[in-house]
Amino acid sequence: MGQPLRIALVAGEASGDILGAGLMRALKAQHARIEFVGVGGPLMQAEGLESYFPMERLAVMGLVEVLGRLPELLGRRRRLLRDLIQAKPDVFIGIDAPDFNLDLELKLRRAGIKTVHYVSPSVWAWRQKRVLKIRQACDLMLCLFPFEAKFYDAQQVPVRFVGHPLADTIPLQAERHAARAALDLPQEAPVVALLPGSRGGEVARLGALFLDAATRLRALRPGIRFVLPSASPERRAQLEQLLVDRDLPLTLVDGRSHEVLAACDAVLIASGTATLEALLYKRPMVVAYRVAPLTYRILKRLVKSPYISLPNLLAERLLVPELIQDAATPESLAQHLAPLLEDGEVQTEGFDVIHRALRRDASVQAAQAVLELAGRA
């Protein structure tokens, strides 16, 4: 029967663990004899991954935090490189975590191991010279979005657009009635979801702004209700402090952001991956974002993309309002949200087209691409 196919994978955080587990399931469904080594979380380990060390040792965010952990991270990468070269996998797959994985992929490829990077870094938006390193490091880039594949095609990097797993799992038509019942929200009242972000810094910059916008929207639309999911106990405490002395008909929910999106009529949302989820639930939205003034001035010079939100990048036009920095005022946010409660069809029709384009059975597509690269299709 020959040697089993050996696949190495490295994921650095929970989202990568989800992607990796789905890819592993699809690989096992298409190939009878396969083994997995590398680094992953509980989901990947449940699918059969032999993880060389806990994935949590790679999960670090923020410049200061990375600097504090840099000796450990560099040491782990050196040992991981040695172990992977010794394991001689047929293919190595780095899942997201580009700062860690791309250097690993470059050295593995030079050692004669075929390499795949799954989830493109945002090279199309900023630090575009990174594509030169990607071209050297990767035999194949697996992209979640079609505009990324166009960018890599133009840069002569082998690429496959596989679609987005969320587009596969979120239904084309979400059931609003059941979601409202589950969240104990009224069936008839207009409901707006507030999603100011999942990180403490985002909530600090956008939380009060979103609540002020809700107060103004309530003056425009009496009878409106609001729902706000908190990503963690820490974010809930932060939001509860912001809600003190505010008279808003608002339901604060622990997690359950997908139910919140299914239940609402429109969304006020921070720019980020949550905008893709709102798009897939076909909920009209207004996107807002604020950063520190110096950060904004630097990013304005570095970012090459005409839009910051995924819905507009995917539509390749201004489909949803983007109110950034000084343009993001309570009055402006409320004025842009109000008409969406009656007429958001232009947005939702565009969202449906995008959802169908992203709904490609991503894990199966990715597995086929990996097996073709390994010569085991």
Draw up the topology in text.
Blueprint: E1 5-11, H1 14-30, E2 34-39, H2 42-46, E3 49-51, H3 63-87, E4 91-95, H4 98-110, E5 114-118, H5 130-137, E6 140-143, H6 146-154, E7 159-161, H7 165-169, H8 176-183, E8 191-195, H9 200-220, E9 225-230, H10 233-243, E10 250-254, H11 257-263, E11 266-270, H12 274-280, E12 285-289, H13 293-302, H14 310-315, E13 322-324, H15 330-337, H16 345-358, H17 362-374
Parallel strand pairs: 1-2, 1-4, 2-3, 4-5, 5-6, 6-7, 8-9, 8-11, 9-10, 11-12, 12-13
Catalytic activity: a lipid X + a UDP-2-N,3-O-bis[(3R)-3-hydroxyacyl]-alpha-D-glucosamine = a lipid A disaccharide + UDP + H(+)
Organism: Pseudomonas benzenivorans
Protein name: Lipid-A-disaccharide synthase
